[in-house]
Backbone:
DNA sequence: CGCGACGTTGATTTGCCTCAACGATTGTGG
DNA sequence: CCACAATCGTTGAGGCAAATCAACGTCGCG
């Protein structure tokens, strides 16, 4: 049990070390603020109307964040597999009621950081201001690229792009989740996969 | 001339003060890194293939950032009016060639911060790590909401939402720019505006 | 004044959705 | 360990939201 946790924390520490260098004491302090959570497939760690308390790092497994709209349709805003963070970001940073579900797609091991602990951490170890700035900037740049793809490409082009960029993810998530991420119906995605869309030339 | 610049800097300082508290010396240092730029209508401050060197704060006027895709179609990723920042974010933070145009929609006064100056600023005054973290987090949350709107709403609903949230912007930007921001053709936006879409019930 | 940029309107087309029905696979309780 | 249900993916037919195309009005500007 202790061994397992050590491995989990080491992986996260390595991830952090890619962006900022911590002293051993700072590392120990950081780890003391974390908690490890196991979630089963289909289990939700965030759901609408509850305030999202944690920022979650995926050690193993996979998660997705999605909205259910007024027509009961699902729309996936994010996936997270090994080494990514996930949360209802708007709910987390403003500490207001969530609008999203954040759900495990497989049995998943998470490392979670509490909102208050994060604030404390940034005050105590200002390097973490830098850390969260950097990962948020990258997330923003990523999302902006995705937004541009959705504005400028057809469903088929978005599908091809995703398959090229994230072949691992496409193999691990259910097809309806991928369709709702790419902004198309499951039926249409299925047809694209099986080349059943009549093309010209 | 000096008066005019003072007003510009004071406005930006007030904006900064909403997020972090600076000493007078820090403020002076910060201002020393800035430069003021006037741009005429239709002038571009960023264009594809050039590395975007500045983060720009709009003091007065308005700007837009857009992509031209392989079909020569424009897609607007962001507007900025008074008191907002704009840049080709991906190009700026990774210091790689831009893919976007950033263009003035009116005669505009900008305050610009150079990439290297920004790095220096964060090292010299770590409060700015915090500042940029906070504004980036907000931008990210904003963009995520927009992404969800685009995934879950019809063109008409997106138009209504925008008109409710940003009535000021809709009056200041040309219609083709708004259409390309909302992800619809100019013709369709025109029809929505003039209630020329046949509705049921 | 005349040209080019911008917006409007109607006719037509199309990319993708919806609906419906049917396989395949997974999970679960008897 | 099998039966059966539920979930997930596939396929085709038909429909609709929004794009495209085309033509014209209008305004601002050189």
Residues:
């Amino acid at each position: 049990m202790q061994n397992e946790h050590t491995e989990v924390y080491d992986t996260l520490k390595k991830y952090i070390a890619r962006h900022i260098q911590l002293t051993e004491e700072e590392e120990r302090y950081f780890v003391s603020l974390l908690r490890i959570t196991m979630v089963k497939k289909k289990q939700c760690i965030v759901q609408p109307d509850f305030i999202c308390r944690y920022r979650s790092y995926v050690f193993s497994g996979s998660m997705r964040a999605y909205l259910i709209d007024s027509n009961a349709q699902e729309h996936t805003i994010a996936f997270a597999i090994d080494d990514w963070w996930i949360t209802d970001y708007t709910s987390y940073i403003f500490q207001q009621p969530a609008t999203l579900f954040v759900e495990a797609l497989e049995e998943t091991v998470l490392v979670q950081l509490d909102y208050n602990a994060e604030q404390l951490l940034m005050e105590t170890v200002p390097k973490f201001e830098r850390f969260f700035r950097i990962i948020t900037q990258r997330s923003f740049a990523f999302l902006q690229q995705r937004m541009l793809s959705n504005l400028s490409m057809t469903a088929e082009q978005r599908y091809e792009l995703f398959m090229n960029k994230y072949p691992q993810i496409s193999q691990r998530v259910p097809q309806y989740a991928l369709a709702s991420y790419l902004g198309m119906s499951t039926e249409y995605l299925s047809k694209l996969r099986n080349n059943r869309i009549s093309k010209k030339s």
User: Anything to note?
Assistant: The first helix of chain B runs from residue 2 to 17. Chain B has a mean pLDDT of 95. Residues 174-176, 186-187, 189-191, 193-194, 196 of chain B lie near DNA strand C (CB under 10 Å from a C1').
